[in-house]
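Consider the tokenized backbone below.
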């Protein structure tokens, strides 16, 4: 009986270790997420792009470079803009704006929807980018995802990903959590 309990505790500890979220700080924000891939498969690069409030919003960008089993590299970025935003934008108006930007960028097969990200309603846009490197080759098609929501009334989060939906993007969105880490960030 005691051996069964020990094995059960060992499995619980292993599951906890496997499901451990990654975490990083960007300015006044603590960001945590889980990509469901080994930590050796990706590189995180947080970057701050600050400007003064009277000159526009303060921006923070987190880049994640993900390498999968086929040695192809995918990118995911999380951009946070604090100040200078219209927090009254509804998910529907965000969807329309993202659709328009995807069309201008030449993406095809564009779809939009609304969903909950980190407990807040937001907009999700998917499309396919066509890369044409040489005229005699078929274009390379890259599925692209973009998500926009307001984690706080004065902050917009935009996630852009080329990582396959079922291999990491969906897991990232399901586990993404952004919180403020100090009182001066309000």
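A designed sequence for it:
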């Amino acid at each position: 009986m005691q051996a069964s309990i020990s094995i059960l505790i060992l499995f619980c500890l292993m599951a906890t270790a496997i499901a451990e979220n990654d975490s990083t700080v960007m300015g006044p924000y603590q960001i945590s997420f889980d990509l469901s891939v080994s930590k050796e498969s990706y590189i995180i690069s947080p970057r701050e792009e600050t400007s003064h409030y009277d000159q526009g919003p303060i921006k923070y960008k987190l880049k994640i470079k993900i390498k999968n089993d086929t040695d192809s590299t995918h990118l995911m970025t999380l951009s946070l803009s604090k100040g200078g935003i219209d927090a009254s934008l509804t998910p529907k108006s965000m969807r329309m704006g993202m659709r328009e930007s995807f069309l201008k960028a030449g993406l095809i097969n564009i779809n939009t929807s609304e969903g909950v990200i980190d407990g807040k309603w937001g907009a999700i846009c998917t499309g396919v980018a066509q890369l044409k490197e040489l005229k005699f080759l078929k274009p390379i098609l890259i599925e692209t995802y973009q998500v926009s929501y307001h984690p706080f009334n004065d902050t917009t989060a935009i996630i852009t990903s080329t990582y396959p939906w079922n291999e990491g993007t969906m897991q990232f969105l399901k586990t993404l959590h952004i919180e403020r880490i100090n009182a001066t960030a309000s």
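The radius of gyration is 19 Å.
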